[in-house]
Design brief:
228 residues; alpha/beta; Alpha/beta knot; Trp Operon Repressor, Chain A; 2 domains; 5-stranded parallel β-sheet; elongated
């Protein structure tokens, strides 16, 4: 069973949408498990303080290293990878999602305010992970994205396992166009090759479409694809 731990100031956010559909069914069937840790429970003062002002001045507040460290130390699993969700981190991609799906468990720290005390990251061997070049109000939204990208790769979660191999990024390209019934809609017909029954021609057409779309929309991916 693949396991995830979420360290957050807002435990009620979870499992949220992950309790619905295929992921919810997989959670019930114990294909994966989710533990949510309330960071604030590690605070010992009467106000349950988890943040303070940064040394050297500046706007905003930082999550305190001592509080987060206590929360982590009491709950982390031996040998698991721990990620702090941060715009400064390594960017999540399909390759990393696949890598994480092969771990036994991971922990995700949802930041708030202006971030966390840097000493926590260095002393607890925490990796920083980003879902894109933009700023969110907190790490919870990013945690959902990370888990969504990983859970669908776990054996038994998706109804059609083959669909994983036919989508964007799996072969370094964006996905080809898809069509379904009705065959003609608003005077537009499905491409004839998809109706031919010739699987080799269909495969070639889909590859050519993926290449054309990637070349125009994602030149960065196209350059990597050509090199490989």
């Amino acid at each position: 069973m693949w396991q995830a731990q979420i360290f957050t100031l807002y435990p009620d956010f979870f499992p949220g949408p992950l309790s619905k559909g295929l992921y919810g069914k997989a959670l019930t069937n114990k294909i994966w498990d989710l533990k949510v840790v309330n960071i604030r429970e590690a605070a010992e003062d009467k106000h349950k303080t988890v943040d303070d002002t940064p040394f050297g001045g500046g706007s905003g507040m930082l999550l305190k290293a001592d509080i987060l460290a206590k929360s982590l130390d009491e709950n982390k699993k031996e040998g698991e990878r721990i990620f702090y969700l941060s715009p400064k981190g390594k960017k999540l991609d399909q390759k990393l999602a696949l890598e994480l799906s092969k771990e036994k468990s991971i922990s995700l720290i949802c930041g708030h305010f202006e971030g966390v005390d840097e000493r926590l990251l260095s002393t607890r061997n925490i990796e920083e992970l980003s879902i894109g070049d933009f700023i969110l109000s907190g790490g919870e939204t990013a945690a959902f994205v990370v888990l969504d990208s990983v859970l669908r790769l776990l054996p038994g979660v998706l109804g059609n396992e083959r669909s994983k191999t036919d989508e964007s990024f799996e072969n370094g390209l964006l996905e080809y166009p898809q069509y379904t019934k009705p065959q003609i809609w608003e005077e537009k017909s499905v491409p004839e090759v998809l109706l031919s029954g010739d699987h080799n021609k269909i495969k070639d057409w889909r590859l050519s479409q993926s290449e054309a779309i990637t070349r125009v929309r994602r030149p960065d991916l196209w350059e990597k694809y050509k090199k490989n």
